[in-house]
Design brief:
Layout (H helix, E strand, L loop, with lengths): L2 E4 L1 H10 L4 E7 L6 H12 L3 E5 L1 H5 L8 E5 L7 H11 L4 E5 L5 H13 L4 E4 L9 H6 L9 E3 L2 H10 L3 E5 L17 E5 L8 H5 L3 E3 L12 H17 L1
Parallel strand pairs: 2-3, 5-6, 5-9, 6-7, 8-9, 8-10
Antiparallel strand pairs: 1-4, 2-4
Helix pairs in contact: 1-2, 5-9
């Protein structure tokens, strides 16, 4: 099924990653072909991808935030859990993963993917259903980080068991009374961070399978952080612990 990736960073990274089939690049008529847009067009020409100059109104029908460029591609190429394990092994690194339990907001999803790619996560796992997926909106919010990540769809209970069998600790983000602060939770070594949905958090079955529950300390007046911010903080805490 065709998808339409929009926004200059998302299109640029999709072309750079070379993981999707690309059918055509659409560029708004009159757009100044310099900077990132120039690089996008040059990349498409080098790969013998058709470059079409089209009326801006046509791109507006795809998404108003197209920034003068839209890339027609195949759907997102999901990975297998084993692909993620093999990537960590090839790099000679302790496994580092992000599990998202029924996240529903593409904004939060894309933001978490961008952070995950930035801190060197080997892969991301999302459930098989009742969850946001890698849509063009998520690609755009992630600034194309999704295209450089291995993202698998799997049963989270089975994925967690596979992680434990591989020697990884599974840490769930949770604000409950049984959760521990960062100084009490081991965040180095082989690790998977679990982030729950925006409203309900981590589902009970998934939570019960976590080795630790992590609570982020807060001193302000608000009660909690949203999923994207909390998950990003946890990923950076893990990144710093792993870098020591």
């Amino acid at each position: 099924m065709k998808e339409f990736i929009y926004g200059r960073n998302a299109v640029y990274e999709t072309l750079r990653a070379k993981r999707r089939d690309v059918f055509r690049l659409q560029v708004a008529e009159g757009a100044q072909e310099k900077g990132k847009l120039k690089e996008i067009i040059e990349s498409a020409i080098q790969r013998k991808i058709t470059v079409a100059r089209v009326p801006r109104a046509g791109l507006d029908k795809i998404h108003l935030n197209h920034q003068g460029v839209v890339l027609e591609t195949s759907g997102y190429p999901y990975a297998e859990l084993t692909d993620i394990f093999e990537l960590a092994e090839r790099r000679g690194e302790a496994l580092f993963m992000l599990l998202l339990d029924t996240l529903n907001d593409p904004q939060n999803f894309g933001s978490l993917l961008r952070t995950a790619e930035a801190v060197g996560v080997h892969g991301v796992v999302i459930p098989l259903r009742q969850t946001v997926t890698v849509t063009p909106a998520a690609v755009n919010v992630s600034s194309g980080a999704s295209e450089h990540l291995l993202i698998a769809q799997a049963n989270l209970h089975q994925a967690i068991q596979a992680l434990k069998d591989a020697g990884a600790w599974v840490v769930g983000l949770d604000e409950g009374p049984d959760s521990s602060g960062p100084s009490e939770v081991r965040l180095d070594g082989a690790l998977a961070v679990v982030v729950g949905s925006e409203g309900e958090g981590i589902r009970p079955l998934v939570k019960s399978n976590c080795d630790f529950l992590l609570r982020l300390p807060m001193r302000g007046q608000i009660e909690s952080l949203n999923a994207a911010v909390a998950g990003s903080v946890a990923l950076y805490l893990a990144y710093l612990s792993r870098s020591k």
